[in-house]
Amino acid sequence: MRSRFRFTVIALAVLALAAPAFLLADGTQLGTISGRVLDEQGGGIPGVTVELVSTGMGYRRSLTTDSSGSFNFAALRPGPYTLRASLSGFTTIEKSNNIAAADKVTNADVTMSLAATEEKVEVIGEVPLVDKTNTSATTTVSSTLTQKLAIGRSYQTLIQNAPGVTGGSNPNSHGALSGNNQYLFDGVDTTDVTTGTFGQNFNYEAIEEVVISTAGISAEYGRAQGAIVNVITKSGTNTFSGSAKYIVTNDEWNGDNKGRNPINGTSFNRTKFDEVQPRWALTLGGPFWKDHLWFFGAYEFYDQTSPFSQTRTSTVPANGGVTGESYQQTLNVKLWDAKLTFQATPSHLFSGQANSDPIEGFVVDYWNGSAEREALTLQGQNDCDGLCVWNARWSGVFGSNVSAEALYAEQDGDITVGSFEGSGTPYLNFADNLFYNGATFVGFVKRPRTQANAAVNLYTQLFGDSHTFKVGGDYQDLESIASFIYPNNQLFLVSGYNPVTRQPILSPGDARLDFTAPAESISTGNILGIYALDKFEVGKNLFFNIGARVDFQQADSDIGNTVIDTTNFSPRLTGVYDLLGNGKTLFSAAYGRYYQFLVQDIADSVYAGVAQIANYDYYEWDGSAFVLVDQVRVGGNTAPVNNDLEPSFLDEFNVAIQQQLGNTMAVGIRGIYRKWNDLVDDRRLFQAGTVIRTPVNFGDDVLSRYYKAIEVTFDKRFSSNWQASANYTLSRAEGNHFANYTSQLFNYANENCRVTGTPVVGTVPCPQVTDVNQYGYAPYDRTHIIKAFTAYTLPLSFAAITAAPSVIWQSGLPYQRQRSASSIHGETYTYFYDKRGSSRTPNWYQLDFALEAVFKPWGPFEIGVKGEVFNATDQQPVTSNTAISRLPDANFGLPTARGALNAPRAYRLTGLLRF
Q: Exposed/middle/buried for 521, CB within 10 Å: 0-12, 13-18, 19+?
């Protein structure tokens, strides 16, 4: 065993040196079909001609089995393949429906028998539900299921199908922050380079499947501590196919909001509007040149006005009747995707793709506490001259032992923000912790990116065992451009605010912040990841994936100073024991180290020389006028660069048992433990009118974050007319630090903060406000999560009827009693009365249901209708831990807007045509 491991290390090093310098990659969107041709006694048959034919695209490859009877077809587009094995004197075996799956190996062993005459035997291939070469916690959400479900039309919604995932469009995965995920479209990294959140929307009809990996992730992937989200898109085939969908909603069809506002007695019922909201979704794909060149395109467009939402409701009786205002957003959406695929030779595949997602009309409560419409922000995104992302990809095989793939991509896009209504100066009212009169932002961001990925694989036999060596990496060149101000470049911090007269209620000590007008801030960065791994068998029952990656992160501030320059080493190790030796009963254990994506946020938020909404003149109300007290300079590169700053890392251990049941079902149970280390926070000091922010790494004796979970999963691919995916997660996420790079901990340790209305009254040392009761449950922690998605199709002589129920049941979210406070320098903080997460919102569930009928009136054409109902039982408990009152009074825990409650029952109707 020791000699095998030593040879693995040497072989990886040699292969890394031999690979061209440009070979960089970040995972793979391709699959592998491999196996052995055996005789009736189980011995390998050499010299067998094995041919593999793509069922949909028609291209074919062939090779000859080696001395052990083994064959390996690498770099395959996901989809079904037919395998044919032939040798004079033996039966010819044709094995259909061998499914190549992204980043998985499908076993396709063949047994041949002696035949006196030519004989052909047809069998059905295997479907890879468990794979000893990839035992990571992976959820594959296929369009064959999602097109039947009642579900949101976005890949962000599909991420919620995975166990251990909570939250909304930017979810928390296995205890990680919402900005710790990585989003790939066919291998193109679209993650926002500053926030770490999703950076692009995508046409729903162009999605073939979404693969969500959440634990035990191999060395191909780096710079993410949450989920790796692979969106795999559709391609054309040899058959012309297309679809047209007309999708309609109407708020008048939907249920009404229940209950009353406990603060002012106002009903949560909204004013419905009777208007059909249509959208069109079109696709078309097929061959330009049969067996060689194919196209696929998708286009979706609509203008859609949302049902009425509601701003927060003031807990101050005098303000209660004029806050909690209703509002709507009207989106103008155009989502398109175009793709060409070219099989130049049986061994070389090329593809090119472009897509865009311009959307205008978002209305967002970026304050997370807007009391009225004037405090909301209007947002548009990705108006990038019609083209936001394009990429070109190549994959090739060289003989039976070497394969390679490479990718080049460019991404553009922007986000613009402004006031939803009016353009007034914003006010933070300490009486109810809500914002009035002005939006959060006016300005824009642009984050263009260029990237190149590639990898090379070597398949070989060593010491009688099969090895797959892989080296590769990814390179990205990044830019972040920002220009932001508050409306009128001011912010007021006041003891009260009257939304009727639109005047503040001032007390001595209230503040006005006059911000310096910023120019554009342009920071740059680049990241490089290089990895090497060996996947190898030891005997019949043991399998290992031993790998490591090195990640380089470098960023320059907008005035050219290098503020991040790190190199990190991430080992990954997985061991699998195949209990029965048939690849269907697997026990696995894995360890991995995962580093944080660090670069642009630090460059933009801490070290920006051209500060955005940061530097201000601080005025205090003295009873008759605002008097200048300080000239506070939070930004402008005043902080000394921390040359030793490193990204945080987490160590993850997980063990799992997976069992495939027949050819279409699998169950599994997994235990996960994750611990974060070297968490980054900034210490803030105030010197000579300047706030000095220095980000540093803290040990786990000061900052901590943990996650532990047990997950149970069940998956069934479509067969016998039904398909399903279900999982249960028992978990806990806890600690005292749940921010990317900055929190209120450790700030102004030697300064005083002014606090009113709490047990700590008056001017006190800041740590008595900022550091109290911080340890507890993460704000996204849920103890229990149950998810189940299923669809059953009843084939009738005249139609196919599909019923698709789905349900999610979750524990409530943590929260605690708290109140806003401000330092003498005008910054706001939160005082916790109780331990973090000491209270929880109620447990809740949601049942969704879809019913579809599809008819085949003639030839290849299908027409159908699909009805969907969301929240079929109309459950409307409190589901938010933000849109509730957290003040320590009689209203604690009560909703302050209808958005705190689960959305009422809603309906959607689709008419469809397919061919």
A: buried
Q: What pLDDT is recorded for position 67? A: 85
Asked if the model's pLDDT at residue 753 lies above 90, the reply is: no
Domain of residue 650, residue span = 137-914
3 state DSSP class of 317: helix
CA dist 355 and 789 (Å) reads 29
Top pLDDT among 668 and 66 is at: 668
Nearest partner of 865 among 875, 855, 857, judged by Cα: 855
d(CA 241, CA 256): 40
Average pLDDT of the segment spanning 32-39? 90
Distance CA 477, CA 380 (A): 25
Residues sharing a CB contact under 8 Å with residue 873, sequence separation 6 or more, in sequence order = 847, 905
The identity of residue 868, as a single letter, is E
Q: How far is CA 889 from the centre of its chain?
A: 37
Average pLDDT over residues 888-896: 90
CA distance 309 to 324: 9
Q: Are residues 438 and 521 in the same domain?
A: yes
CB-facing half-sphere around the CA of 238: CA atoms within 13 A: 11
- pLDDT of res. 548: 98
Q: Is the dihedral of CA 21, 25, 29, 32 positive or negative?
A: positive
The torsion region of residue 192 among left (phi > 0), alpha (psi -120 to 50) and beta comes to beta
Residue 76 shares a structural domain with residue 173: no
pLDDT of residue 215: 96
Instruction: Please give the Cα distance from 538 to 668 (Å, whole number).
Output: 23
- Residue-wise pLDDT tens digits, 709-741: 999 999 999 989 999 999 999 999 999 999 988
- 3-state SS of 552-570? EEEEECCCCCEEEEEEEEE
Answer with the one of 124, 148, 164 that is the final residue of a domain.
124
| Same-domain status, 79 and 148 | no
Q: What pLDDT shows up at residue 386?
A: 62
Matching residue, tokens 């409701």: 313
Which H or E run includes 137? strand 137-142
Q: Which amino acid is at 30?
A: L
**pTM tops 0.85, yes or no:** yes
Return d(Cα 516, Cα 615) in angstroms, integer. 6
* Residue 535, both tokens: 């996947």
Is residue 50 within 8 Å of residue 70, measured between CB atoms? no
- At 901 the pLDDT is 95
Length of the chain: 915
- Whichever domain contains 867, its CATH number is 2.40.170.20
For 407-436, what is the mean pLDDT?
A: 93
Give the pLDDT score at 615: 86
